[in-house]
Write a structure and sequence with these properties.
- There is one protein chain.
- This protein is mostly helical and 235 residues long.
- It is built from twelve helices and two strands.
- The protein has a two-stranded antiparallel sheet.
- β1 and β2 form a beta hairpin.
- The chain is elongated, with a radius of gyration of 22 Å.
């Protein structure tokens, strides 16, 4: 599974995600075959007050530009089945196309179902041997780097307040589990469950590696340990 970043969103390129993107592109082609890409939509813009960047929004004139901006700001997020803004657009445009709206409703249902199934499929625990490698290294180094590591997971996510492990929660985990390996396992489980709950599309190993390499988490990044984690995943 490959992880790429588009704007701030992290997308796992699974077969299911690629299929969702393909279906969405097909629908857009259908949309633009009924309503021209260069159709003026100045009045439609007012239906999306949540869009940010007033100067950029003022420059939007055409249907294609509006859809692209909604995609960039994740108001349209096909990988998660979020297509509601397209429904608003379709209901505003003339001539109204009941067939297009029907196709959109079907697509939205399909993409949401695919996203939920993918989340369940890929929300796996961190392998035991990887947890042990991390625990041994953190036990070897003086200090409390395992806590900084636990708090750093997902710290650069836009919804970090919902998914990050808090200091009080780390204290509870520490009191409950005397061994670092069990503490880390509990941290990973809590973090993964929150990402699933808040529909954060991520790969836990990629998050672990990026956290180990992050100078904002550690003054001196654990680059060697990050490489070791990657190697362990190839076993």
């Amino acid at each position: 599974m490959v992880l790429i970043t588009l704007h701030w969103k992290m997308i796992s390129l699974t077969p299911e995600t690629i299929e969702s993107q393909t279906k969405y592109k097909q629908f857009k082609e259908m949309l633009f075959s009924v309503h021209p890409r260069n159709l003026q939509v100045v009045q439609v813009k007012s239906r999306f007050p949540e869009l940010k960047g007033r100067r950029r929004i003022d420059k939007i004139l055409t249907l294609e530009e509006l859809v692209q901006e909604l995609e960039k700001q994740l108001s349209i997020f096909p990988e998660r089945g979020i297509l509601h803004p397209l429904r608003i657009i379709l209901e505003f445009l003339t001539p109204f196309s009941a067939a297009l709206l029907d196709e959109l409703n079907k697509l939205e249902k399909q993409l949401k179902s695919t996203f939920l199934q993918t989340q369940l499929q890929y929300s796996q625990d961190v392998p035991v041997h990887v947890v042990e490698v991390l625990a041994r290294e953190f036990d070897r180094v003086p200090g409390r780097d395992w806590e900084r590591f636990a708090e750093g997971l997902g710290h650069d996510f836009p919804n970090r307040d919902e998914v990050c492990i808090r200091a009080g929660e780390i204290d509870t985990i520490e009191r409950t589990f005397p061994e670092t390996s069990k503490r880390l396992a509990a941290v990973f489980k809590m973090f993964s469950e929150r990402c699933l709950q808040y529909s954060v599309d991520m790969n836990i190993i990629d998050v672990i590696v990026s956290t180990l390499q992050d100078e904002n988490v550690f003054g001196t990044p654990y680059n060697k340990l990050a490489r070791r984690v990657r190697e362990e995943m190839r076993r």
